[in-house]
Amino acid sequence: MSFDVILPFLRPIAHLILDPAITEVMVNGSGRIFVERDGRLETVAGVTVREQNLRVAVRNLARALGDDISEERPLLDSRLPDGSRVAAALPPVSLGGTTLTIRKFRTQHFTAGELVRLGTLTAAQLETLHRSIAARDNILISGGTGTGKTTLLNALTAFLPERDRLVLIEDTAELQLEAPNLVRFEARREQVGLPAVSIRDLLRATLRHRPDRILVGEVRGGEAFDLLQALNTGHSGTLSTIHANSAEQALTRFTSCVLQSGIDLPYAAIRYGIAQSLQLLVHLERRHERRLVTELMRVGRYDARSDSFDMQHVPGGAAGDDACQIHLAPTSKPVPRR
Ligand SMILES: Nc1ncnc2c1ncn2[C@@H]1O[C@H](COP(=O)(O)OP(=O)(O)O)[C@@H](O)[C@H]1O
Ligand SMILES: [Mg+2]
């Protein structure tokens, strides 16, 4: 169990960390403790942590994770082996006392069929995605935090042909996929004495390992440029996710990620490149405690004059609305939130 590394330092809140219903544990500078349970914040009454103890605990757990937090480096952003995050801030940066936040890694895996049954997407949408993967379209899944992007990506990997050599690149190894010819790369943050290895570094390295398909867990920065390059040089059939508020905004966000790479390309050229390289956008939203595909769109041509993409809704793409109605009907059973 991965929390074993840090529990010895956090005895007063160990029960909260171990409670599977709690997704986040927060200790404020004041020593007050909050948790997130079922997506809601709760105060934890009757438990406090003394500042002095918390400060020592945070230093020790940082060390146990191969990191460091001190007066010179007062911010900790560390990960447990399972991907859970431990963030801390020491005074005086954190006013009034040490702040500690533990965000538990908890992605339950759903198959594509289960996602259809949950009403996240329709069978027709799934069929479109299946065919699109077989046709080696490049697919980008967008949505806000926790909308189920990674979960959908994971479910869709079941449709990847067995004969393909897959290279999967992630910030934190989250996806669970089984494939006969699979190479997995995980980025590394900078740590004491160890330089960072970025998604971008890994993407470039990937091209030397003869990939048939490159999967990128999430596009968040300059690697978007390298991904476009790879897609333009025959490595099609990619699946990836991006943080955005709508399918169209996903393209804007992708553009700004490409710009972050520092390449010297005209804006319109980047947008043309995106229109050529991405074929399908799937957008997810969280509504009434459910995750829904609210947009499934084909990316058409880019028009530089209006700076817009010709986007076409894939028929049967209104799953979100149907599912919402099912959810709101008085006879419907609530779907357990995970
Ligand atoms: N379709 C879904 N229905 C119910 N729960 C889901 C669904 N998709 C994801 N989840 C749950 O929501 C949480 C966040 O999912 P994740 O895929 O990591 O989101 P994202 O990648 O968008 O941040 C996880 O706990 C996951 O199990
Ligand atoms: Mg994700």
Distance between the termini: 20 Å
Strand content bin: 25-35%
The appropriate CATH architecture of the largest domain is 3-Layer(aba) Sandwich
Shape by Cα distribution:
globular
Reading the helices and strands in chain order gives HEEEHEEEHHEHEEHEHEHHEEEH
CATH class of the largest domain: Alpha Beta
Whole-angstrom Rg: 22 Å
Task: Label the structural class.
Answer: alpha/beta
The distinct ligands, each listed once, are: adenosine-5'-diphosphate, magnesium ion
Task: Describe the main β-sheet briefly.
Answer: 8 strands, mixed
Q: Tally the helices: what do you get?
A: 10
What is the CATH topology of the largest domain? Rossmann fold
> Any idea what the CATH superfamily of the largest domain is called?
P-loop containing nucleotide triphosphate hydrolases
> How many individual β-strands?
14
Poorly predicted ranges: 319-338
In which range does the helix fraction lie? Answer: 25-40%
Which properties best describe this structure?
single chain, alpha/beta, Beta-Lactamase, 2 domains, 8-stranded mixed sheet, 6-stranded antiparallel sheet, 10 helices, binds adenosine-5'-diphosphate
